[in-house]
Amino acid sequence: MKQIITACGSGVATSQTVASKVNRMLAERKINARVEAVNVNNLKSYMKTCVAYISVFPGDKREFPVPVIDGMPFLTGRGIEAQFEKLLEAIGEK
Amino acid sequence: MQAVMNYILNNLGSSVFMPAVMILIGLAIRMRVMDSISSGLMLGVALIGMSMGTAYLVSAMGPVVQAFSVSTGTNLTTVDVGWAAVSAIVWAWPYVLLMFPLFIGINLFMLGFKLTNCLNIDMWNVWEKACTAFLVTGVTGSVVIGLAAGCVQTVVELLNADAQYYHVKRLTGVPGVSCPHPQLIASVLIYPVDLLLRKIPGLNKDINADALRAKYGSFFENHIIGFIVGTIMALIARLPVAKCLQIGVQLGAMLFVLPMLAKLFMQALAPISEAVGEKMKNRFPGRDFTIGLDWPFMGGRSELWLAKVIVTPLCLIMAVMLPGNTVLPIAALGGVYMLSCMVITNANLIRMIILGLLFQPIVFYTASYFAPIITAGARAYGTLKLLPGQTITRLSAGGDFGYVLGSLGKVFQGNFLGILLFAGWVLLAIFYFRGFKKEAKKIREEEEGAEDEGSRAA
After folding, report:
1. In chain B, whose CA is at the least distance from the CA of A15?
2. Which pLDDT belongs to residue B384?
3. Is B365 on the interface with A (CB under 8 A)?
């Protein structure tokens, strides 16, 4: 089970919204990956075990050891399909 | 109506009643039966989980806070249990779910009549409006007035999201999204003060926040912060060292675990909020509105995190020294209004810190003011087990606007100070909206100018 991480200020609302949405899309395509929502302050701990990071902080200039996918389309719905394909490519499920 | 509510609550309890309502709502919006039941029960899980967590937090921290105030000679006996714990109380409030149709109705109405350009799909923060409703109900004794206050907040949030759109876009670079978060309503108060600050030379230095943030890492992780604050607090309270370390680990655990439990509320809500969000979007095909989101999309700016880190220790000191403050800020830590400060100053770190500190006293006083109501709610709706005489609160409880609304609500009890306060707030709001409109126009012109140059160069 590939782990994908998303984070927001609390790890509760915004990141959970993205996680629920993407998990639903992953389930529909029967892909063996799961998104987990965490608190942005705890990101470092999860970097070692995840294969990608969906960021809802546009403009965040920090470097991460895994591919970073812009999470805004999952929140607004605009361009969501294309973004999902990008995510699949990043985790090697294309 | 009240009698029916009391009967239901006393016999069923909110952990049965709320899931039942949730299941009915799921069925009403035509979710599959199993999904509705799952969502409803998940809400019950969330309520019980939070109840467990906050009971532990209060029983572990309560005695420490008491000892702390005794040994420092201060009156900081109210425990700041954080937004997660207070959200549990609000979610158990019998009238909380009423805020949803009110919120959606108001948004659709305003969109339909072009009073706003913001489609607020942030269903999570409906709990914030319900929290205001809950607090104002506590202050005025009337649920109708409380819900009305929640409605007023909804309207102001949408208008504010529109007013700040270009400023926020300049900060994040993301078009098409706005932020109707209630914490931004404080901008009304903060804006005029920033205008004064802008006149002081030397405060407009450009600081490379990204470099600073990379150097000092992001804000310490929750469990580490909790450990540090808990241990220091217990040491100041003159508890034996072994006990201090235990308290440190306990608080670290609480600051880490409570938000995780609060996540369960979101999980319970997720299918419903998604369905509602989709329906709302489909209401207005072809119309170019902005999508209203929760604040994290502004969190890419390092200035926000830096300012919070710097302001937090100063706020702790302030809590001890501020006369009349009874709140020990162990959960929410610093800079509650930092978001507003960032938008108004366009992420100018120095002014953000100054403004954040200037307005922090309001945070402490309103948190102290609403503490009795939150405490009463915790006892009444049974989500928390408190020691007798213990009070709790949350730092961003109500805030400045909540207080104004509460005072206005009291007008109906013959307390006319509320009208003056509200009138004063409205005047400030008009000044703010006008000022921001002018600034927004300038920002827009600058953007378009830059775009023109770009296309000329291309």
Report:
1. B296
2. 63
3. no
